[in-house]
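re: that chain from earlier
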Amino acid sequence: MLLIVPADPLRPRRPDPHFAPEAVAAREAGHAVGVVDHDALAAGGDAARAVAALPPAEDAVYRGWMLSAAGYARFAQAAHARGVVLRTDPQQYRRAHELPGWYADAAALTPESRWTVGDDRADFDRARAALGGGPAVLRDWTKSAKHHWHEACLVPDLADGETAWRVASRLRELRDDDFTGGFVLRRFERFVSAEVRTWWVDGRCVLTGPHPDTPDESPGEPVDIGPLAPVLVRLGLPFVSADLARREDGVWRLVEIGDGQVSDRPSTLDPQRLIDALAAVRPEDPRAV
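^ sequence. v structure.
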C-alpha cells in the first residue's frame, strides 16, 4: 500500500505536520509514503506537477485535506498517469463525499433531508417547504458551518422563510469558494451523546472511536452499527467514515457519511490502528482466505 499525504507547504518534501503521524506509522509498518501538493490540486493548478513525487503503486490511499469531487478527479487522473492507482475512484469519492450520493441508501437511518442544486433563493424555498415546519440543520453538500451554529447552521423554524434565508445566506458567505453543490436542509433531531466516528473498509467496520471535535469523549455504551452495516455494503465504497449519535429516544442515528481519505482522525486515535486497518488483506485479494 502507498499512503499519500499532503506535503508541508514550507518543506514540500515532507508530510504536512497534521498527517505526519500517519505517515510515520505507515513507514514503520513497511508501507511506502508519498506526498502531493494539495493546494495545487485544490486550486486547479498543474496536477501533474502536484503529484510528481509519487512512486508507482497499484494500491494507493490518500489521507489528507478535503478536495472537491472535481479536484479529486484531477488528482486521480494525474496519479494514474504516474502509475498510481487510487483505491477510491473519482465516482466513489463523489458518492461518499457529497450527501446526495449516499442519502437515498441511508435515508431510514439519518435525519430527513432536502437539497438544492445551486444557491438560488427560489430553490431553497422549495426545499424548505418540502421538508415542512419545525427546526432544521443547514449545510451544503459536503460540510456545515456548525461552529457558527446560531447564525449559519440552525434554522429555528422552516416556516419562517426570512430567518431561514438569512441563515442560508450566512452559510453561503462563510463557505465562500468552498460552497459545494447547493443547500441541504436536514430535519433537526435532538442528540444526547457525543458523536462517534466509525471507519469502514470494503463495507466492514474496522474502527470505532470518538469524533475529532470531541476526542476525549466516548459514548459510554456500545454503539449500534447493525442497521448501518448493510447500507455500507450496498454503497460499495472502499473507505469511508460514518458519524453516529444517540438520539434522545435511545436510537443511534447516522449523522453523515464521508470519504475516509478526507475524514479527520481524532487526536486520541492511534494512527497505527488506522494504517493497519487500511493495509489489512482486502476481501477481493487472492491472498484472503
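Residues 43 and 142 are 17 Å apart (CA to CA).
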